[in-house]
Write a structure and sequence with these properties.
Strand content of chain A: 15-25%
CATH class of the largest domain in chain A: Alpha Beta
CATH topology of the largest domain in chain A: Nucleotidyltransferase, domain 5
Largest interface: A-B, 48 and 48 residues
CATH architecture of the largest domain in chain A: 2-Layer Sandwich
CATH superfamily of the largest domain in chain A: ATPase, nucleotide binding domain
Number of strands of chain A: 12
Oligomer: homodimer
Number of domains of chain A: 2
Structural class of chain A: alpha/beta
Helix content of chain A: 25-40%
Amino acid sequence: MIRLGGLEAGGTKFVCAVGNGATVQQRVSFPTRKPEETLAEALAFFKHHPVQALGIACFGPVDLNPSSPTFGRITATPKPHWQNTDIVQPFAQALGIPVHFDTDVNGAALGEWAWGAGRGLNDVLYLTVGTGIGGGALSGGRPIHGLIHPEMGHIRVPRDPSDCFAGCCPFHGDCLEGLASGAAIHQRWGRAGEKLEDSHPAWRLEARYLALGLVNLVMTLSPQRVILGGGVMRRPPLYTLIRQEFKMLVNDYLQANQLKDLESYIVAPALGENAGVVGAFVLAQQALEAATG
Amino acid sequence: MIRLGGLEAGGTKFVCAVGNGATVQQRVSFPTRKPEETLAEALAFFKHHPVQALGIACFGPVDLNPSSPTFGRITATPKPHWQNTDIVQPFAQALGIPVHFDTDVNGAALGEWAWGAGRGLNDVLYLTVGTGIGGGALSGGRPIHGLIHPEMGHIRVPRDPSDCFAGCCPFHGDCLEGLASGAAIHQRWGRAGEKLEDSHPAWRLEARYLALGLVNLVMTLSPQRVILGGGVMRRPPLYTLIRQEFKMLVNDYLQANQLKDLESYIVAPALGENAGVVGAFVLAQQALEAATG
């Protein structure tokens, strides 16, 4: 079996893995420090565990345009030291293997599409709700890139009349991320989401905002399935609340059999913490196919 | 030159044309009546003006899934008599030529992409603001289909605090279409948009809502250009107002050179009333290529 490399380059931690398909043979993770140290540590892993191609699912913003002079770089990130870091060339040059990369959310979307909750479908939306909110979507089995990859978290939704929290997005205040991210929950209620009991009114409001966001994304992208992951979603009752709100908001406007069974339409990820590296294996496989024609 | 047929099947009128590329050689239009009469009239045109393939850009909802038993049909339309009308087979059988079809907004998006304001780009959003609001998007040069084609008009946006109109969407009340379609303008102000002077406060509010909608679509689809058409957009100052509101709403969050020049990013259609049939020619060309391998 071909040994593929997967690197999930996150803002908090890097995960390096070797495997193929959904099988992860080796896996290490370490905190994201300065670029030179962190990239050297990842490179050492792949020198010690040789692979035939490498896929990188990277935190953003990144430049995904192959014809751009800054292709392969992390661009205007607020993360100190990481602006303009080339994430592709150091690996391609030192390892001499094909390398392909995409955003972290597109990586997770690819992983879930190939081997997880989106298997067998061509149009899949993956939305992660953690400290921030970000989305990746596949249309016809291809990640949507476009001009950049704005990642969906900053769409505007109507405020709930009961909610007087101003929102925590430094750019927009009360965009979806400003109202419904883990950071927003913490600021609005004075406690992190993990410390709020299931009966707390926070969850009904959270479900309302996430359902409003999903309605907008579904009305725009028309995915065959929505996969909702991230730390905030680790509370199972939230899925049920979101499905209820989503049904009320759509109000029978969208006619498709799949939408009659929201338990199969709005689902949790199947790959857990491996979605990112498994998606990176998909990218590595694509790099290998592109290189060998 | 290959003679391609284009049919723009709208809920109000049908346009039949013969041409190639952006060149329209023959063109007729007639009102949409009952299906049997209207389809017979269109068929008579194409029998009289033979073509090698036919593209159809059709009002919806339509079934675009080739593996579905109702592929090629108009499905749950509120338009009397047209439910479950097969729009593809009558032409394919009677004319014996390859036929390809898509939604009316995807047709216009394809036309503008191939020969109009989206030429040379791969990721284009076309939004029409008329009696209703509908959108079509291309990702990597392919129309986004997915589960169905919800056409973007029914996304939710925050209400303007000054606006006490309840919205006119029968499904959702104050979704984007309910707040900013031509029908909404008419109901809110008691007069059709054409009868409101440029200085009327209607236009600032309209620009605000359309910019909120565009922000959500751009944050999700990341198009390289946005083409805004439809009857409501026939008022040129509206483009300027929309660009101003869009800039304020994005608030420098999206970093791309194209977004620094909104006059080139949010534009009017270039093909005018021919966008639909020119897009249908693109579909006809695709049908021909699929048939001849």
